Automatic annotation (TrEMBL):
Pfam families: Acetyltransf_16. Residues 1-121 form the N-acetyltransferase domain. This is Alpha tubulin acetyltransferase 1. It comes from Prolemur simus (Greater bamboo lemur). Keywords: Acyltransferase, Coated pit, Membrane, Transferase.
Length: 191
C-alpha cells in the first residue's frame, strides 16, 4: 500500500470485545491515481487526484452515522473537499451517501470506471509529493512558457451494433495453410 500511496482508514468499536480487542465497524481506502478524465467540454485532462478506492461499513451498523464520521475524518486528514475526489466504481449506496451528506449529485460523464462530480476541475489536483516528471515539467516552465495544447474532441461514438468481439479465430494472418506448426517446430529445434 505504501508504494501505491494508498491509505486505509479503519473505524473500530472499542466497546465491542469479542476477543478483548474490539470490532472493526468499517474502512475507507483512498489513494492518488493518475487518471485521464473528461471535463464538461469533453476535453481530456491528465490529473492525479485523491481517489476513493473502497468504502465499507458493516451492514449491522449502517445508518448510525459511522460512514459519515469515517468519511469526514478522511476529508479532514487529506485536506480535500468532497467534489475534488474521484470515486472508483461507486455503488448506488455510495452515490446516495455522497448526495445526502455532501450534495454531490451532478456527475461529469467519463469513459473509465471513475466518477467525478461537478466542481472537480475547480481546483488543481496535486499529488502529495512531486514526481520526477513534475519536477522536470516545472524546470521547463521556469525556462519559458510553452503554449497550451488545444482541447481535443473525441470521435463520435459508434453504435453498439458496430462493435465486434475480438477473437484470434477471426483474424486472417495471410499465411500459407500449415505454416504455423512447421514454424513452431523449427523454432523449438533452434532453427
Amino acid at each position: 500500500m505504501q508504494s501505491n500511496r494508498h491509505v486505509i482508514y479503519v473505524l473500530k468499536d472499542t466497546s465491542a470485545r469479542p476477543a478483548g480487542k474490539g470490532a472493526i465497524i468499517g474502512f475507507l481506502k483512498v489513494g492518488y491515481k493518475k487518471l485521464f478524465v473528461l471535463d464538461d467540454r469533453e476535453a481530456h485532462n491528465e490529473v492525479e487526484p485523491l481517489c476513493i478506492l473502497d468504502f465499507y461499513i458493516h451492514e449491522s451498523v449502517q445508518r448510525h452515522g459511522h460512514g459519515r464520521e469515517l468519511f469526514q475524518y478522511m476529508l479532514q486528514k487529506e485536506r480535500v473537499e468532497p467534489h475534488q475526489l474521484a470515486i472508483d466504481r461507486p455503488s448506488q449506496k455510495l452515490l446516495k451517501f455522497l448526495n445526502k451528506h455532501y450534495n454531490l449529485e451532478t456527475t461529469v460523464p467519463q469513459v473509465n470506471n471513475f466518477v467525478i462530480f461537478e466542481g472537480f476541475f475547480a481546483h488543481q489536483h496535486r499529488p502529495p509529493a512531486p514526481s520526477l516528471r513534475a519536477t522536470r515539467h516545472s524546470r521547463a516552465a521556469a525556462a519559458g512558457p510553452t503554449p497550451a495544447a488545444p482541447p481535443r474532441k473525441l470521435p463520435p461514438k459508434r453504435a453498439e451494433g458496430d462493435i465486434k468481439p475480438y477473437s484470434s479465430s477471426d483474424r486472417e494472418w495471410g499465411l500459407p495453410q500449415g505454416w504455423w506448426p512447421k514454424a513452431a517446430a523449427t523454432a523449438a529445434m533452434g532453427g
